[in-house]
Amino acid sequence: TQLLEQSPQFLSIQEGENLTVYCNSSSVFSSLQWYRQEPGEGPVLLVTVVTGGEVKKLKRLTFQFGDARKDSSLHITAAQTGDTGLYLCAGPSNSGYALNFGKGTSLLVTP
Amino acid sequence: NAGVTQTPKFRVLKTGQSMTLLCAQDMNHEYMYWYRQDPGMGLRLIHYSVGEGTTAKGEVPDGYNVSRLKKQNFLLGLESAAPSQTSVYFCASRSGTGYALEQFFGPGTRLTVL
Lengths: 111, 114
Fold this sequence. Notes:
- Chain A has about 110 residues and is mostly beta strands.
- Chain A contains no helices and eleven strands.
- Chain A has strands at about 5, 10-15, 20-25, 30-35, 45-50, 55-60, 60-65, 70-75, 85-90, 100, 105-110.
- In chain A, strands 2, 4, 5, 9, 10 and 11 form a six-stranded mixed sheet that branches. In chain A, strands 1-3-8-7-6 form a five-stranded antiparallel sheet, with no helix packed on it.
- Chain B has about 110 residues and is an all-beta fold.
- In chain B, the strands form two sheets. In chain B, strands 2, 4, 5, 6, 9, 10 and 11 form a seven-stranded mixed sheet that branches.
- The termini of chain B are far apart.
- At the A-B interface, β5 of A face β4, β5 and β10 of B.
């Protein structure tokens, strides 16, 4: 199993602050995905990164894939209470049919 | 489109009871998955299917069985429930084409085994 380590495990910040969460592995991935899960719901895909060094922006969210394709980061600018949730990174399993998920970063944004 | 739906949303079982969780998708996806999510453990793959009539074991398959008799449905069975199976269960599906492996998730089933 290709392990994905996410940090920090928990993060509590105030509205307007910036934050970065990380997803690291010792394995090389052909692609990495970030999902957000809100309380009581299933995860929803935010982005897929496929090229080493790639940077993708989704409004206030910036995703980066490491040059060696072993790690990724998610940066949120001026966090809002609506950003609260569990952020999961995922990469293809060895079989290629499934995904391996990290344990997630639980983000709480307070007013 | 309803996307991925799961039945039931909540269930309480006694140890030793059996039950079946139903997942249905209306996106004509080839691949379907069952995960369990426990606090601090992330999403762990139980079983998956790459097409009608096929199933395969995931990371934590013990105590569970699955069936994919129709392309749109993926059933997860617990033959003799144990307290360790208390969890939130998520079903997901994805298209069989494309490299990005985007998965679409259902809303989850919260199962408590007493």
